[in-house]
Amino acid sequence: MSLFEFLRIDSEGPLSTVWLARPPVNSVSQAMYRELEALFSRPDQYLPGVKAIVLTGEGKHFCAGNDLHEFGTLTPENSDARMAEVRAAFFAIQECPVPVIGAVHGVALGTGLAIAASCDFVIAAENARFGTPEVGVGIMGGARHLARLVPEPIVRWMYLTGDPIEAGRLAELGGIVAVAPPTELIKRAHEQARRIVRHSNASIRMAKRSLNGIETMDLQEGYIFEQGLTRELSGHPDSLEARHATLEQRAARYIE
């Protein structure tokens, strides 16, 4: 029996696929935010041996946003506690110790966009649309996540108009790494995930930690941070094995 009510999980070796599963459009309730935070902050507890996660949605859409019926009861008095659960879920995906690949189809609006932008990178179906309708809904949030995907002028245009953009346009802007036919989306996401999980678990997790750490640093500060992680990783058996294998391959190449 699943430990989660609103998430469906399928694991195959070091690769796990997590589906947002709250019909009909995977709108996110407070309970679902808590489930996302639990799973992505402690993946080893729920996904033993995992090295990469593909995050997608059941049904026709990735995620249409917040549960607006629940959000209709938001007040200045209860908003702090609720917003803490919202950001804890987003941050858990972003800070997950293993890479998370977003596989987006249909709509990714508001919270859906923030979830996608919290992933390490996104692959989208040709029918995917991304948007931040917060201004029209009467709430704030999501613009900073959107800034992980598109340049600042596009952030402001999307946020102030509330107009969504299609996957092809977002790919042109560099916000997603690939666009696939809807029927091939999960296959393409799994292909990218397998390119990750071929590396050692220690190296993957250190790379994720490094990328998260340097995201807001300038060049010199960031590189110093990376060098510190090199020192930390250099004594790990996986690092020693990888360096020796690389030297052997290089030597064989030059001998040939």
Enumerate how many helices there are, as a single number. 13
Distance between the termini: 56 Å
Inertia-based shape: globular
Low-confidence stretches: none
State the helicity in percent bands.
40-55%
Strand order of the largest sheet: 1-2-3-4-6-9
Radius of gyration (CA) equals: 19 Å
Order of helices and strands: EEHHEHHEEHEEHHHEHEHHHH
Quaternary structure of the protein: single chain
Indicate the topology.
Blueprint: E1 7-12, E2 15-20, H1 30-41, H2 43-46, E3 52-57, H3 68-71, H4 79-94, E4 100-104, E5 107-109, H5 111-118, E6 121-125, E7 129-131, H6 134-137, H7 143-146, H8 152-161, E8 165-166, H9 167-172, E9 178-180, H10 185-197, H11 201-214, H12 219-233, H13 237-255
Parallel strand pairs: 2-3, 3-4, 4-6, 5-7, 6-9
Antiparallel strand pairs: 1-2, 7-8
Helix pairs in contact: 1-4, 4-5, 11-12
